[in-house]
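anyone seen this seq b4? input:
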Amino acid sequence: MSVIPSLRNAIYLREAVNTTRPRAEVFRFLTHELSANYRALSPAHDRFDILGGGPLVRGSVIDCRERASNQEIHHRYVVEQLVPDELIYYVSSPSHSFVHLPNRIIEGRSNTYVSYALRTLESGHTELFMTIAIEFESLWQMLVARVLGRAYSVWKAHQVEELNNLVTLLDADPGHAVKPPGGGGDVSLSPAHPASAAVRGGQPGPAHPTQRGG
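predicted toks r here
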């Protein structure tokens, strides 16, 4: 299940994971505690700040920054849909990317769409299905990003890492602290771990010149 529209010049990243936690707890983590635990999901995560404070509600604005390989991206997501215990959907239009090469930095833009869909399995566990779409202004720019910038492989690996670490956090006992990847302090399911104030980061940000976005 995904509410992301069909986009002509886009790269889609789709991944599903299962957690032992009930659906309501997973939804609450994503809306109330993701900002505080964001850096525990990947060492390349820098910030997921809900402007004006959380939890996430429809219309919330998120300053999200992260990296993968030589690429970094800055999002300004707006939550467009929020269905309790079922769906979270937000869009960044545009997202700003920075591709670091030996002698220069290539800046670009894209639209980024993210959805989380949750359903309860027969076992009582929860399936979390995450879809990310990166929309480009033209087919040529999408092909350059995918082939030369390795956009799909770079950000697909990042998505898998992020979701696997999310399951580790969710499946931990409520009082169990989890060491974030790459070191750092212990992180638990409580919002005690502050979001990073770092300046760099973002989500899917392939190598490209300029992509769609206003």
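The chain is about 20% helix and 35% strand. Confidence is low (pLDDT under 50) at residues 175-214. kinda curious what u guys think
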